[in-house]
């Protein structure tokens, strides 16, 4: 699959940030397939009877994006990082709502299938989200790196671009954050 030209996406994002509503509508068809791929990546670890499909998750993220004030989106990578965060929030909201109505929400995400996170069993999406929130209180940049790489599917280079840090720093922080999450999730599952 061909990726949309980075400069075209960046130009449309700049126009939208300056208040040009049409720019966001022009951007949608350019990035739609990549957003669907990202949504599919998220949903493949969800329960089979999940009420959202890839298209619905993309549309929900799009509605949240246009529903707020234009975000200062610097480039293509930053756009996909924001879209990833929105998709994560949507899935966590769905999981929380399901857990509220049913003790075992059944909404699972397999960490071992995503990127190279070394966790051997399924962890509850809400528990993972809570662990990321805790990590953000300890080290916000590490939490953002996990979000960008795990949830956003961004490469280390793309994450470095979004965060305006070096790739080596991303790789180092990613390793530390994975270790922290692994330990935290292991200790939180023990009685």
Provide a quick synopsis of the model.
The chain has 191 residues and is mainly alpha-helical. It is 69% helix and 2% strand. Helix 2 runs antiparallel to helix 3 and helix 5 (125-138) packs antiparallel against helix 6.
Widest sheet, order of strands? 1-2
* Terminal CA distance: 46 Å
- What is the helical fraction, as a range of percent? 55-70%
Strand content: under 5%
User: How many domain regions?
Assistant: 2
Helix-and-strand structural type: mainly alpha
In the CATH scheme, the class of the largest domain would be Mainly Alpha
Largest sheet: 2 strands, antiparallel
Outline type: globular
CATH architecture assignment of the largest domain: Orthogonal Bundle
CATH topology name of the largest domain, in short, is Rna Polymerase Sigma Factor, Chain: A
Task: Give the helix tally.
Answer: 8
Quaternary state of this entry equals: single chain
Order of helices and strands: HHHHEEHHHH
Average pLDDT rating:
76
Detail the poorly predicted runs: 103-123
DSSP strand count? 2
